[in-house]
Amino acid sequence: MAATLQLDPLTPYSYSPNNITDEMQKALSEGKELLTDKNGDYYSVSKFYTSEQYHPMIMRDRSKASESGFNVNGSIFADLTPFDGFVFTSRLGYRLSAKRKPTYDYPFFGNTMQSRDYVGIENETSSTIYYQWENFANYTKQINKHELSAMVGMSFQEQSYDYTKAGLSANGEHAIQKNDILFGYFNYASASATRTLEGEKTRTAKLAYFGRIGYNYDNKYMLQASLRADAADLSYLPAANRWGYFPAVSGGWIISNEEFFMGDANPVSYLKLRASWGQNGSLAALEENKYAYTTDISSRRDDNTILYPFVTDVEYVTGAKPSTMGNDKLKWETSEQINIGIDSRFFNDRLTFSMDYFEKRTKDLLVKDTKPSLSLGGVTPAMNAGDVKNNGFEFELDWRDRIGEVSYGIRANLATLKNKVTYLDPSLARIAGTNFHTTTVTYFEEGYPVYYFRGYEFDHVDPTTGDPVFKDINGDGVINDDDKTYIGDVIPDFTYGITLTAGWKGFDLTIFGTGSQGNDIFNGIARSDYLASNKLKNIFYNDRWTNSNTNASVPRAGMNDFDKYLASDALVYDGSYFKIKQIQLGYTLPKRWINKAYINNFRLYASLDDFVTFTKYPGFDPEASAGSDISAMGMDKGSYPTSKKVVFGFNIEF
């Protein structure tokens, strides 16, 4: 999408072979490979704009990569009941999978910066074996109005993964004997081809013991307590810290079951108060960073062997250096949460309302790739460097009723969220997150939301020059990195959703919408080092400064300090939106039509998914721009928008 947005609009989609530009003709004369569409026309190469971005169809066709494999999943369990109230369960789940991924790289010419002259191939095969074995016993005892329950158990999971990756890269000629995908195998390697081979086998395992006790009196008062002990293998944590202990306790009071509450005239049919406190652990940040706590020695630097002249002659030997700094204090990341809630139903259960207040504190947050100011050399290991607090309210309201043959329902929910980093290791001023080109935009810092946007505050456009003017935060008269400050964050003030349902004589209708309010999005499409790239009209052109428009809100074309402008709140936009996610109409056939075919239920439906979005965000899709990596959330670098879908389907029960 970034290539599509940045290519200039003056270059056509393709050129016929007898009508190409001088630049493309020059590339052909130099032996470059111009890719073609199905009609034999050349995909165009812009003569105005050269960068890492080029024709999207060339990007698509420059390689042919396929992926095939299989997954086998299953489970087996047994329940043993030696005496009344006691159940012992043993359960084994497994997953076997294998994957093969061959890639054939064609010669191509995208522009003078992006091209490949020769064929190369690569193939990767991998397999994964995963299983989880659980054993737990449940015991329940009823004594008059007292109900006691207890559970103890254990869980063990193990995963082994091995892969082999091999490749043939070009070295002055095609890596295979002929530029033809039918020869895209290692047996047809050219004599000059550079061969690469790598692979290894890894194993990870986790073990847990857990227990829970519960008490219920007359279905009015409920208490429950649990404890879980988790251990990870040495690929995650050092032996001294591999165990984590996570307790929890909860209680509830069903007020509507009290005698003083009962009565036919009471519109409240159900009312429950509940509260809970608990902890849980996570090692998710270490999944892609195994043995993060170890101190390592390496003989390579930036993919090159370290060579050192130990003698006066021109003779070098392989050297070594510390590559990572160890951290034997690494331990589990712990989240502690308090929840207070109320559940209620009114008017014979037609109206349902629930409300929760939550406060979640994440302690010993696992972070990696940090740069402490007191360390010199090497790569900093993962560390437990911060605490984060989240708190807010959650509301849900549901009304269901029937008028004659028409049934209908309205369900709505709303959740608020306040997020703040409450502690950061003193050795760190802030933790850098995601970059936009060469500038870091998101940071993790005490006193701010997680990975907030940090940059310059755009003040106004100089009416005389048309250049941007930024706020001098520290008042020293110079605009530099010291003037960067908070310019937005991706955490919404609240999120919400609404679902409307209706039914009549076998027909059913569902309309579902969801939205977010108060979140920001950083638009990172344009770059200051490629001034000739296409710019989004409603961001860089509408109301820009010209000699006849000196009171503009957007600086002039060719502005000074364009790099600062792109790293300022001028590119931070309100990402609030409401999206109708689904409109679905269904029809269930009458029983009398399908019974003779031994069909119990037959429903046809049609659905429009993601068709309508209401937003002021000038990019393609505020929802798709949210991102999945927590340090890159809200960074729109050309995110592919959510597709609109028209769906037809049916459900059959025999």
Description of the structure:
It contains six helices and 40 strands. The strands form ten sheets. The protein has a 19-stranded antiparallel sheet that branches. The protein is globular, with a radius of gyration of 31 Å. The longest helix is centred in the N-terminal third of the chain and has 8 residues, at 22-29. The chain is mostly beta strands and 654 residues long. The chain starts with a helix and ends with a strand.
Give the beta-strand count. Answer: 40
What is the gyration radius calculated from CA atoms? 31 Å
Major sheet attributes:
19 strands, antiparallel
By DSSP (H or I, 4+ residues per run), the number of helices equals: 6
Task: Quickly give the structural class.
Answer: mainly beta
Which descriptors apply to this entry?
single chain; 654 residues; mainly beta; 19-stranded antiparallel beta sheet; 5% helix; 51% strand; globular
